Amino acid sequence: MATRILSPLCSSIKKSLQSFGAQAYSTAPVSSFKASDVEITRTTNPAPKPEVSTLKFGHHFSDHMLEIDYTSTAGWGKPRICPVHNLSLHPAAKCLHYAVELFEGMKAFRGDDDRIRLFRPMENMQRMLRTSERSCLPLFDGRELVELIKKLISIDADWPQLGVSRSSSATLFVLIGPVGPYYPTGMAPVKLLADPKFVRAWPGGSGGFKMGSNYAPTMAVQNVAAEKGCQQVLWLFGDDHQLTEVGAMNLFTFWLLEMFGAGTACVVSPVEGVLYNGEMLKIPTMTNPYVTNRCMKELLDIQLK
Ligand SMILES: *Cc1c(COP(=O)(O)O)cnc(C)c1O
């Protein structure tokens, strides 16, 4: 292991990140809102439910949202579950200028037994708290937020299938809604653009956090990929062009036989080609997608059981 000299700022960030990992789920008191304080206002005007067969990804939202305000002087206010409404922001709001914001994406599934289960929500809470700390947004007790999300989902449970996502003074809000497939073409294999000229994340940067500032710079690269007939970007890093991730998914490779992206949103997305140095390298994933299908099956089995 290499020893390095870190600036005081870096070492204090590192220290607090390490300590935070432990703190998020310990019983140590974190200044937080409490799920038991929630105030609920139900809609008098429920929206019509979309047809399950026509669901698109990220297009539908249920009737209610969760909202919690924070100020550095008063701390967290009471959580409110209320009808979905637009936000009203001062034009100087920091999120508009400096991307001081964060988000999480989580899925909930209705099982054959009609019970609704969240997909490993604690992992999302840990990441959300890490990202809060990295963006200097206020911390909270992740267990309280999971309790509130459960409450919100139970209120909007008659929406067919639910996905969950949320984003000095701050507002924490949670929106839920049913989702269709991330890729409308289903398990169709994708081609990736791998161009070392574009770098998404680097050591010492903030690429490992779910902050808005990591996504805006990728939109134009996604367009370059589309112009070259690719559906996604394979992000490379370093002089030796290491594979890091694909689009906003984690990348999996099985020798030179199979390659696929996987994440909460897309589940599994097989790769059939990589455009690298102007040459389309063929990846034979679909010839015998053994590992790809096994991963898909494992994930679907957890969703629906
Ligand atoms: C959200 C995200 C992922 C996938 O993480 P999940 O835990 O599956 O949601 C991977 N890469 C990036 C850049 C992301 O934003």
TrEMBL record:
The cofactor required is: pyridoxal 5'-phosphate
What domain of life does the native source organism fall in?
Answer: Eukaryota
The answer to whether keyword Transferase applies is yes
Is Amino-acid biosynthesis one of the keywords UniProt gives this record? yes
Write out the coiled-coil annotation as residue ranges: none
Give the SUPFAM superfamilies listed for this entry.
Answer: D-aminoacid aminotransferase-like PLP-dependent enzymes
Keywords linked to the UniProt accession: Amino-acid biosynthesis, Aminotransferase, Branched-chain amino acid biosynthesis, Pyridoxal phosphate, Transferase
Please report which protein family the annotation says this sequence is part of.
Answer: Belongs to the class-IV pyridoxal-phosphate-dependent aminotransferase family.
Name of this chain's protein: BCAT2-like protein
Native source organism of the sequence: Mya arenaria (Soft-shell clam)
